[in-house]
Amino acid sequence: MPSSPTDSGVSILHATCVEVDGVAVLFEGPSGSGKSDLALRLVAEGARLIADDRTALSAAGGRLRARAPEPIRGFLEVRGLGIVRLEPSECAAEAAVAALIGLTANRIVVKRMPDPAERPVLGFNLPFLELYPFEESATAKLRMFLRTLADPEKLVE
Q1: 3-class DSSP state of 149
Q2: At a CB cut-off of 8 Å and minimum separation 6, what does 18 contact?
Q3: pLDDT tens, 79-114?
Q4: Among 88, 103, 106, 115, which has the highest number of CB atoms less than 10 A from its own CB?
Q5: Run of H or E residues at 83
Q6: Quick one: pLDDT at residue 117?
Q7: Mean pLDDT of the chain
Q8: Distance CA 155, CA 157 (A)
């Protein structure tokens, strides 16, 4: 995942980030892969946007933390509508990153029964899930993934 380091120890990643149940989830994928669309659906379900399209990441207290670069804080691109300013209640200032979601435009490449995976992001190994974001169950799958991270006993291998 390419990043742009800054002088302040913050790296800017081409990723969207949403706070779901108190933790940050990063969405990576090329332009048009569904990062903003998935964030929009999660916000409609009660999650909170941290950053759209570019996420500022830094290490603090042994955790990877995510926040929005100031110029784009609170904004979400909604395809077909434009850039929308969200309500303050729909946004989170920052959160600890719990997972990385790799978005794919081809649902066929998503494995039915994948092995647990991790991906390195700025020296942190994050739990990783590949997801087809345009599937109706995408937000439910993401929430289930987070529950299995919190309670590994939920996942039967």
Answers
A1: helix
A2: 24, 25, 27, 38, 39, 42, 43, 47, 48, 49, 50
A3: 999 999 999 999 999 999 999 999 987 666 666 666
A4: 103
A5: strand 82-85
A6: 78
A7: 90
A8: 6
CATH number at residue 42: 3.40.50.300
Non-local CB neighbours of 56 within 8 Å, separated by 6+ positions: 10, 11, 12, 66, 67, 68, 69
Token pair 């390195």: residue = 120
Q: Which domain holds residue 33?
A: 3-104+111-149
Per-residue pLDDT reduced to its tens digit, 28-43: 998 889 999 999 999 9
* pLDDT at residue 7 greater than cutoff 60: no
Residue 155 is assigned to a structural domain of this protein? no
Q: What pLDDT does 79 receive?
A: 92
Q: How many domains does the chain have?
A: 1
**Rounded distance between C-alpha atoms, residue 23 and residue 104, angstroms:** 22
